[in-house]
Amino acid sequence: MQKNERPELGQVVEHIYDAALDSARWPATVALIAAFAGAQAGGLGLRDSVQKNINVYYDVGFEPEGIQAYLATYSKFDPLAMSPLNHGRVASVADLMPFDDYLDGRFYREWAKPQGWLDSANAVIEQSGTSSTLLRVVTTKTRGPVDDEIRQRLAQVVPHVRRATQVGKAMDLKHAEAAMLAETLDGLSAGLFLVDAKGRLVHANGAARELLATDDVLRSIAGQVVTRDARLNQILREIFAVAGQGDAALGVNGTALALTAHDGTRYVAHVLPLSSGERRRTGIAYKAVAAMFVRKADLDLPSTAEVIGRTYKLTPTELRVLHAVFDAGSVPEVAQVLGVAESTVKFHLGNIYAKTGANRQTALVKLVASFTNPLLD
Q1: Closest CA to 294 of 364, 372, 199
Q2: Which residue did the predictor score with more confidence, 373 or 80?
Q3: Gap between the Cα atoms of 290 and 144, Å rounded
């Protein structure tokens, strides 16, 4: 890429997931994010809401002396340290405080202005207790204030950075010792299967071994991970084969597959390719081309139902129907559970399909699963 050439989104996303497996790649990745957004500098940092300061741990575009001064003196005057930032929202300085007040403040006059910096676009990547991980890109006085294009472009990469940081915590395949890696993976509530292009099992964590031991929703035959449904098993074989061809074939976000146990319990398998850049080298070392996370598609978590309902503007009745679809399955069974006519169930189910964009019940299972992080409890 030429110095002034703006990278494509696919290139940026590829580097984000590579950085998840090799933290030394984060500075170069942040540089790509800043360039993609149309900014001139950027960084990842940790905001302490109690101390009201920000500790920068990956930065690009700043002079070392400027970062030292920021950490030692000026971070506590940063508008981002003083003002709350909503999770999932990209905010500029003007969203945090009156821009004229910012220009008159100590942070801009003494730190930003002398270095030629003007504005920044900021997003929360992860929230934990009194601290939060922040992604920031910064514009110069020459470029001007943050505009809608920068906000929109940064918003495109934020979900990938968020997922990459989660994957990086769970799977540091390059630097962790084998025993420590196994212990980390065994701590995941989701079943984790590392597989090769033919679906042969390379590694399974504790939850995955428990799933295989039930010999139900998934099983191991001649070393291959298979499902009890022949049609779904063929789809899974195709997914693993495509994963071996790289992210361009499967997509950096991977794919999801709805599974059902004998007792009707719904599961979702999330398949993430391990075949691009740093992940390709990891795959060679471990003979794995994909990581498959399997867990129950749980709609019983209050936060999951609340978020789905708010996102798709589902009514309380529609949420009850969605719950019943998960528990009972067919329209007649849902009607019996809810004590209503089948025509009523079909009416509300039609509204759910229209609002969510799903066109069948398996698509609803995947939708619910997308609101449940496969890496976390």
Answers
A1: 372
A2: 80
A3: 43
What SS3 state is found at 123? strand
Q: Count CB atoms within 10 A of the CB of residue 219.
A: 16
Q: Confirm if 61 and 28 have CB atoms less than 8 A apart.
A: no
What confidence tier does 358 reach under pLDDT thresholds 50, 70, 90?
A: confident
Cα–Cα distance for residue pair 291/276, rounded to 1 Å: 13
Nearest to 347, CA basis, from 311, 303, 315, 302: 315
The closest of 132, 111, 110 to 123, measured between CA atoms, is 132
Q: Give the chain's domains with CATH numbers.
A: 9-170 (3.30.450.80), 178-296 (3.30.450.20), 302-361 (1.10.10.10)
- Do 291 and 271 touch, CB atoms closer than 8 A? yes
Please give the full DSSP string across 135-180, using - where no structure is assigned: EEEEEETTT-S--HHHHHHHHHHHHHHHHHHHHHHH--TTTS-HHH
Most confident by average pLDDT, 70-74, 330-334, 363-367:
70-74
Crossing angle for the helix pair 148-170 and 9-21, nearest 10 degrees? Answer: 30
H/E element, 271: strand 266-273
Please give the Cα distance from 225 to 171 (Å, whole number). Answer: 20
Q: Which value, to the nearest 10 degrees, does the dihedral of the CA atoms of residues 75, 78, 82, 83 take?
A: -140
Q: Which of 42-46, 88-92, 93-97, 286-290 has the lowest mean pLDDT?
A: 286-290
Residue 172 CA, distance from chain mean position: 16
Distance CA 258, CA 265 (A): 11
d(CA 109, CA 143): 18
Six token digits for residue 262: 């004998």
Strand order in the sheet with 117-128: 53-60, 41-48, 131-140, 117-128, 91-92
Contact 372, 301 (CB under 8 A): yes
Amino acid at 246: G
Residues in the chain: 377
Residue 282 has pLDDT above 60, yes or no: no
